[in-house]
Specification:
Blueprint (H helix, E strand, L loop, with lengths): L6 H12 L4 E6 L5 H12 L2 E6 L5 H9 L4 H12 L8 E6 L5 H13 L3 E6 L17 E6 L4 H7 L5 H11 L5 H17 L3 H10 L2 H22 L4 H15 L17 H13 L3 E7 L10 E10 L2 H8 L9 H7 L7 H15 L4 E6 L9 E9 L2 E7 L8 H9 L8 E4 L4 E3 L2 E5 L7
């Protein structure tokens, strides 16, 4: 089965607009489908392609890249023979897979693009880490896109449903309720998506077997792969990275989801753990959300680096990580999500799902937090802030049975006339009330 990905159209647009003037780097977490997507593009859009996986580089291939690059005629001829592929001017593609494993190949892109004979896609993880960039000059001829786990619409496509998402978008644009029957049907699919997540391997297994136990096994394998990567590539501070990684579910299960280092070590300071958060973010394993202390000036200009929330890049992986040491049958989240009885973990999964959707839609993540020990009326907690139509819009994530939105009301009053449309995301249908747009969770992908 071939998974349909929105990023395919971004790559197609690059091919058309670049016309060989740039290479394209696809950055993303491990097992998010970068290599698969690049190879599908090569198969469909070119007369021939050569995929070079630098994680399985032998001495012969290394020799070609280190010794023959000064003579590009010889360089291309050797690669053509080694991979048994004919090359056609302007009709062949080179895919540099896992390019972070051999940074010199990335540096070579400048000269290959200038040569102009072929097109170049690069895929990689941990692309921005110092160890993968310190000895090379990053080519200015390199464009860059990020690949995230499948979003809800892509999940629906995988499940054979290509009609629901366009109708949901119509309802979103017109602020029209879907109606009880259809909303219930879509929400049921969304619950499945929340549990499976968007990692391609997990989605393919679910489409084929509809077996959560098999899906959970795949997700555990991916999580263990991430742990192995930490041990291999976070040398010197791997124990701190793993401590943060393991603590995320516990932090998100709290009412206030800000990451508190004292839960790891009473004497821990942000300056000693900062690299750990950066590593997980650079690996795109997590989505970090910073406190923006004055959203009317600019989200990034006023971010507080010491106050942050840390979400999993994929909610399906969070579900498995929460009960990592238990068997699938002992993971209560599966039963709770399917039966709509989430209880204490409802906020954790819902917020993570929204963070994932906003990040995939191109937003950097920010929230707003204001404490005042002397006056509770001045305490404000807003889950997310996004820029939409040139205005900063507050977003609150609520459970289905919520009755008040005091923080959002106080935020709207405090910044009256200076902010854009406020939103509440919850598990009910579309509703507009008191100037606030209420949207079902599955519409987060359109914000």
């Amino acid at each position: 089965m071939i998974l349909k990905r929105k990023a395919y159209q971004k790559i197609a647009a690059w091919k058309k607009n670049s016309a060989g003037k740039t290479a394209l780097l696809i950055d993303g977490a491990r097992r998010v489908g970068k290599s698969y997507l690049a190879e599908e593009f090569g198969k469909n859009e070119y007369k021939s392609y050569i995929l070079i996986n630098f994680s399985r580089m032998n001495s012969t291939l290394r020799g070609v890249f280190e010794e023959d690059v000064m003579d590009l005629d010889l360089f291309f001829n050797k690669l053509s023979v080694m991979f048994g592929k004919l090359l056609y001017r302007r009709e062949s593609l080179f895919i540099f897979d896992e390019v972070q494993r051999f940074p010199k190949a990335r540096e070579l892109i400048k000269f290959l693009v200038e040569d102009g004979r072929y097109d170049y896609l690069e895929t990689g993880s941990l692309i921005s880490l110092k160890t993968n960039t310190q000895d090379i000059v990053i080519p200015s001829e390199e464009e860059h896109i990020e690949l995230f786990p499948l979003d809800f619409e892509e999940f629906l496509w995988a499940m054979g449903d290509e009609t629901a998402a366009p109708f949901i978008k119509q309802c979103f644009d017109g602020l029209v309720p879907l109606g009880n029957a259809l909303h219930r049907k879509v929400l049921n699919s969304f619950r499945q998506y929340m549990l499976v997540g968007g990692m391609p391997q997990a989605v393919l297994e679910y489409v084929e077997s509809k077996n959560f136990a098999k899906v959970d096994k795949i997700k555990k394998m991916i999580l263990n792969l991430y742990r192995d990567d930490v041990i291999k590539f976070a040398k010197g501070y791997e124990s701190k990275v793993l401590a943060v990684f393991d603590e995320i579910p516990g932090q998100l299960s709290k009412k206030e989801k800000r990451f508190t280092l004292s839960s790891i070590d009473k004497n821990a300071k942000m300056r000693t753990y900062e690299d750990s958060f950066v590593w997980l973010s650079e690996a795109m394993v997590t989505n970090v959300c910073f406190n923006s202390t004055d959203p009317t000036v600019g989200l990034n200009l006023n971010r507080d680096m010491t106050t942050q929330k840390c979400y999993f890049g994929d909610t399906g992986l969070l579900v498995t990580q929460t009960f990592m040491d238990n068997e699938y049958t002992e993971n209560d989240l599966y039963k709770s999500v399917l039966l709509d009885k989430l209880g204490i973990n409802e906020g954790m999964l819902m917020e993570n799902m929204v963070a994932q959707a906003l990040r995939a839609n191109g937003h950097k993540l920010y929230f707003y937090s204001r404490n005042d020990n002397s006056n509770r009326e001045n305490i404000i907690e807003i889950d997310f802030l996004i820029k939409r139509q040139k205005k900063i819009c507050p977003i609150e994530v609520k459970s289905s049975n919520y009755t008040t939105h005091s923080s959002l009301s106080k935020f709207m009053k405090k910044f009256q006339g200076k902010i854009g449309q406020p939103y509440i995301l919850y598990s009910k249908d579309v509703l507009v009330r008191d100037g606030i747009i209420h949207l079902p969770l599955y519409m987060a992908m359109f914000l």
